[in-house]
Structure prediction request, 633 residues.
Amino acid sequence: MDSDLPPEICTFLATRLGHQSLGRITLLNKACNKTWTPHLYKHLRITTPLQRSRIMTAKFLIALSRNARFIRTIQTRYPLTLVPFADKDELPTLQLRTLDILTDARAETLTQEEDLAIVRILERSPGLLHLNIRRAPIYPVRILMTIVRYQVALRSLSLFNVAEYEKIPQGTVELAKVFLDWCSAELETLTLALFIDGLQINHDPLRHGGPLSIAGEVPTTCKKHPKLRIFTLVGLQDGSELEWHVLKTFLPGCTSLQILDSARPQLSDGIIGWVTDGGDVGDALGQVKGVWPQPLFANSNRPEYSEDQEISKMVANIVKETGRFRPVWHTITLHCRFDLELTQTAQAIARVCTTDLVRLNIGGASQFGSKGMQAVLTSCQDLRQFDSFNHERTNNYLHTFYPSISAKDMISCPWVCRWLTLLHLEILDIPRPDITVDGSGDPLELFGEEENMTKEESHEIQREVYSQLGALSCLEELYLGHRQHAMTKLAIRQELEGDDYDSEDSEDSEDEEDTVGTSQFQMNCLEFSLESGLYLLAGLKELRILDVTFTCHRIGVPELEWMETNFPNLASLRGLDPVRSMEDDVQCKSVLKTLGFFSPEALTWARTHKIEWLPKEDQTDQEWRWVREQDSD
Prediction:
């Protein structure tokens, strides 16, 4: 390859070439080595056990000592691989711009050695612009105060936002307050996960011997954060009145704040979140944004059509309220026990909540209808979480009913909710000409007039769907599974009717015991194959959970290899092999395998390559067996 290419062309080509190709080019001759070595070392990624073993070899360490000055980005799942970069005697001061400690599905908590390795590289990288630590330290004070002391130019910062809420590190009110007041004034986005303990509210963390003194000298005056647009604080307990002790000097300085999010793990039974619980926080937001954030919780056991009208009026009437600041909906939670389609409510939300709505939950059996879903997603630009978790059964995702949208409506207009981090969605009506029979082997008629659509025409539709999803660059959790149809009919009736349902008195109780099989797998869904356009999801770099449970996907070895490269933060892929759950449905299992679904090669490859975001035993199996046991009791 010509070594005299303009720098712009070299940079463009380097982004298109793989790491191995760049490595081969540097070996061609001295000129190529000089031209392409900076591109080879610019982005260093360590995400697999094989990469980890290679980077710790003597040969690599020698190369590192020569080329560390070229490194601008480090992504690693293994913090101990940072140790060589922290050696002051061997390497010069680093010129890192991005440091990304990736999710580790096997170990969300940092060891003391890993904690120290991160601290040392932070001390040696004063020019960082982007810092993400997606694992939790046991004692967060050292990392937090090192960031305060050394990282004054940060623009984006995400700390300790692990998948398991119980693993979030603990800290005092003073630690959180000092960190927020003194962190970089250049921040544009900030996510901090810290379980805040209010028992030491009068403790001075800066006095001699205090826990923050280990970081050395720190600033003595609070900073303002005029560029901060998105602030998420995870771990502050609702109704504790601690939020104002933490935020009273921080929020007034965030004059450009667009989104404030509490990011609870789930919404439940009217517990809305500290953002709308605290009057002082609301008052501070009013001074900054001119709005007063409000929660709406609607819970109904009535299946009447009038219920939709009543809820839609509740949503719309907020524009009529007056006060010191303009009231807006920040969080809306709708739980209806019957299969009620809240189409008017969806349109009201789309009309009233074009800004400021951050969290939307439609649990129970609520639905917006396909056009209602599209209206919300094309109107609510500040939406961060759109979920359907269900009150006390939230922890078991088998009891979650996902809102549905047709592919035709979904691709009719671009979504505006670019800040979404969590999305529950069942995408319907995608023609699948590769599926000709159902689980019983009978001819399948799913698509009506579109039944004769060709494979390429189907892929064209799927590519438009992937493009819509792929634009959600902040997305962390994407649930597309079909598990409400994977439950037994008896379980669904019991879920909807609760204690009022008596299975012994039901005439059809014996017929309702059929479990997964035949139509229980969604067959008008995305293939999730590279051929169908999976590559269009390459922008989802923050994705941690991908759920395709009980859908007829075609995820094979090429797709897993692609995910390993393009989803660096992936911690869990759910539903890769749901056929193993169908222990008794031999016929359906045989038919689906005949159609080419769920071949064992993918799981074999994942085990061979020690892919850490695939559990040793598919999670779907464990949850499904649990439900079967409950049904048999």
Summary: The chain is about 30% helix and 15% strand. Residues 3 and 32 are 5 Å apart (CA to CA). The mean pLDDT is 77. Residues 441-632 form one domain.
